[in-house]
Design goal:
This protein has about 260 residues and is mainly alpha-helical. The protein contains 7 helices and 6 strands. The protein has 3 domains: about 80 residues, no CATH class; about 70 residues, Arc Repressor Mutant, subunit A (Orthogonal Bundle), CATH 1.10.10; about 80 residues, no CATH class. The longest helix has 29 residues.
Length: about 260
């Protein structure tokens, strides 16, 4: 059986689908769309998606945490970095090889499957000497032909969950001050859009590195801790769209909380 076919297939439960759709439904309702029209529109979109390929193939890779943890451990652990603090080239076997790396963060994961996914999406490459090199500091989840399904699903869940909490927040809210901020400009050519995206990607990686260090330093790794655990982070995404639905004629900065 191939590495790809052995991947576990994530399904979306009705509860998770409801959570994803709630803020969208709230906005459609506030925008004057009737439930009947909303159901018709959603049904048509679902039918269109089922009949036409969306472009790149969506590939199931299982829970993405195992891959992000492997990349993170490879970047940080003294077992897997050289004297200059760079990720070492790893053989598959051995006390400090790739299999040992995978087992140190996800003992139940198949190292062959993890390596296959990391290589397929350009995170790891094999050297001429037969060792493996980590070439990206974050887990990249797409290539020219396919996109990993689970990270995209998690991204959508994070966006809608955050928006739902903001919409439902009352004066009695005791959680963190969740927010959404953006900057944009509608006077940008395609050539400038490419330069901006490259600039934002580079600066975004620097910022995410800083945040990753903060989270690593402040995480509670005690298994015996009785404190409630929360998943906390920050996501960055780029914007590239037509002006069909937006009346934006100049640069703007916006915030929602």
């Amino acid at each position: 059986m191939s590495e790809r076919t052995r991947q576990e297939k994530t399904t979306i439960s009705p509860q998770r689908a409801s959570s994803i759709l709630f803020p969208i439904a709230a906005l459609l309702d506030a925008g004057g769309m009737s439930p009947e029209t909303a159901l018709t529109v959603f049904g048509a979109a679902l039918e269109r998606a089922s009949k036409r390929p969306v472009g790149r193939k969506l590939e199931h890779i299982g829970h993405p945490t195992r891959y992000t943890d492997v990349v993170g451990m490879w970047m940080r652990s003294k077992r897997f970095i050289d004297k200059n603090g760079r990720p070492r080239l790893l053989r598959v076997d051995g006390r400090d090889g790739f299999k040992a790396l995978v087992r140190s963060v996800a003992w139940q994961a198949d190292p062959k499957v993890v390596l296959s996914v990391l290589m397929r999406y350009g995170n790891v490459k094999r050297t001429r000497q037969g060792a493996y090199e980590l070439v990206r500091p974050f887990f990249y989840t797409s290539n020219a032909e396919s996109i990993a399904f689970e990270p995209i699903l998690n991204f959508l869940s994070d966006v809608t969950s955050n928006l739902s909490k903001i919409l439902r927040r009352s004066r009695g809210w005791k959680g963190p001050d969740l927010f959404w901020k953006k900057t944009e400009d509608a006077r940008i050519s395609d050539a400038t859009a490419k330069r901006f995206t490259a600039f934002a990607r580079e600066r975004g990686l620097v910022f995410l590195d800083e945040l990753d260090d903060w989270l690593e330093a402040n995480s509670d790794r005690s298994r015996a801790s009785l404190k409630p655990r929360r998943r906390v982070g920050l996501g960055i995404f780029s914007i590239y769209s037509d002006l069909e639905f937006l009346d934006v004629r100049r640069g703007s900065r916006q915030a929602l909380r």
